Structure formats: structure tokens, C-alpha cells
Amino acid sequence: MLTLEHTTSFEQIIKKSRFVATAGPIGSEQAGKDFLAAYSDRGANHNCWAWRIGQNCRSSDDGEPSGTAGKPILQAIDRLALDHVAVVVTRWFGGVLLGSGGLVRAYGGTAAACLRAAQQVEVLPVQEAVIAVPFSDLALVKARLSGTPGVRIHQETFTGTGATLTAELPEAGARHIVRMITDLTSGRASVRMDPKITT
């Protein structure tokens, strides 16, 4: 499963209409909404879009004839087998009508060109872990986690007796990492796991 490494844009003129596609990675439905808000242009005639996160997907024709914009954008995402991706294709009308077939080709083609130009990365399943560690073990646990490939510590908050670390662990090695933390601290640290998918 692939997603995009970062946000990418692509622009083309089709029969005097300007089409600009912006595609980027998203981690949630709210992130998709935020992406659409950030990359839609209120001064344009249409901001058509689609996004996919696993089995969840949405699209919008934003005033274009039904099925001529949002669906072709979503099909461009699916043809490249991308996930956790949003695409906005903005159109400034140039005075020449494209017809339904022309719109499908313009929106789908602009989205596909943008997605093909973007750098793709593998989507890796991770486990989100909340690790409660006493002060006596904190430095050792942090050092060992920092040296473990694929582990990312997002947050560290202090309590009266230690700290709580919020981290992403690679799903494939999560059990081993939890066992390592338990062994390092002789069971003094506790770990709570939640499934998540990220890049």
C-alpha cells in the first residue's frame, strides 16, 4: 500500500481552462477536510476533489455535471493503488465548454498526472503505544526506544512518579518492543497499545 511523501501540484491548460491539481498525504478524515480547505481557491470556478483512507472515500464535483470531476479524481487515486491521499483539482473556466467526456478526461487526467509526479512511500502499519515509565527507568527506556528502527516518540508528559511517553511502534515488531520495555524495567513500566496506520 502506497501514499504520497509530501504535497505536490500539477498544472495544465485545456481548451483555455486552467486546471491545477494538488495532491498530498492525509492521516484522517479531518486531515482530509483540512487539506481541502487549505488547497481550494475561492476565486476559481470549481474546486473538485476526492480522498481515500482505507475503505473510506469521498469525492465532490463542486458544481460540475454529476460524475464528471470527483469520481474521475478518485479513480486516478485508485488506479495508482494509493491510500491516505487527498486530491483537489481547481478549475478556472476559459470560455470553452469541454462536454462531459472532456471534463472526465480533464479532471481525471490532471489528477493522475499530479499523482504520478509525486514521490510515493509505503504505508506502514504501526501501533500507537502509551508507555508509563518511572523516573528511575526513563533515560534507559528513551535511549533504547530512540535506537530502535521505526519507533517515533511523539510526546512526553511528566507525572508525580515518572513520565508518560506516547510513541508509534512498527506493528511487525511491537510485541518484541513491549517485551524489551518490560524486561528493561523489571515490569515497572506499563504499556497500552492502540492500532493505527501511518507512513
TrEMBL record:
Domain Impact N-terminal: 15-115
Any one Gene Ontology molecular-function term assigned to this protein's record: ribonucleoside triphosphate phosphatase activity
Annotated InterPro entries: EFG_III/V, Impact, Impact_N, Impact_N_sf, Ribosomal_Su5_D2-typ_SF, UPF0029_Impact_C, UPF0029_Impact_CS
Gene Ontology process terms (BP): regulation of translational initiation
Residue intervals of the UPF0029 domain: 131-188
A Pfam family per the record: DUF1949
GO CC terms: cytoplasm
Protein family membership: Belongs to the IMPACT family.
Protein name in UniProt: Putative YigZ family protein
